[in-house]
Amino acid sequence: MGLLVQDAYGIFSELQVQFIHTPIDEMKEYCQTLEGKACRLLGIKVLQRTTRGRAPGLFSLIDSLWPPLAPIKIHGQSQEPAQVKKNKT
């Protein structure tokens, strides 16, 4: 099963997930429960990433469907509370 996820930096990734010994109906219900919610996934091995530069059409589609609700974090930088407040106005 493939899942489209967004991390704290605003980077989208596709996860290929295997549910062992889980009926398909339970998998679908589990995924629907997590849709739109923040969650922590542990033990994930990233096999491949794509970037906006390599797949601009894909990211344009994603941005049109799910525009960022908060400023996208830049890896290695933190925002001061004043910056976050300024970005929200």
From TrEMBL:
Endpoints of the signal sequence: none
InterPro entries from the UniProt entry: DNA_repair-scaffolding, DUF4503
GO cellular component terms attached to this protein's record: nuclear chromosome; nucleoplasm
Every DUF4503 domain range: 6-86
Superkingdom of this protein's organism: Eukaryota
GO biological process: double-strand break repair via homologous recombination; regulation of establishment of protein localization to chromosome
Species assigned in the record: Engystomops pustulosus (Tungara frog)
UniProt name for this protein: DUF4503 domain-containing protein
